[in-house]
Amino acid sequence: YYTWFAGFFPVIKPKYTIVILFDEPQKLYEEEKIGGGSVSAPILKDLVDRIMFYKKIKPDKGSD
Asked: 44, CA 20 to 30 Å: which among 7, 31, 36, 63?
């Protein structure tokens, strides 16, 4: 199975789209839920933060 998460930025006038996909992700502990929001989204956020810093893109007002 796959887990994935997609995002775009900046919110106003998007310039970039990123999709993070995992093929058969593994649990670190039994209670952990595996899904796009818990596995892929944190990686997407880190990548977006790094690109925005490198490209000197300021966050849109009101977007988190």
From this structure: 31
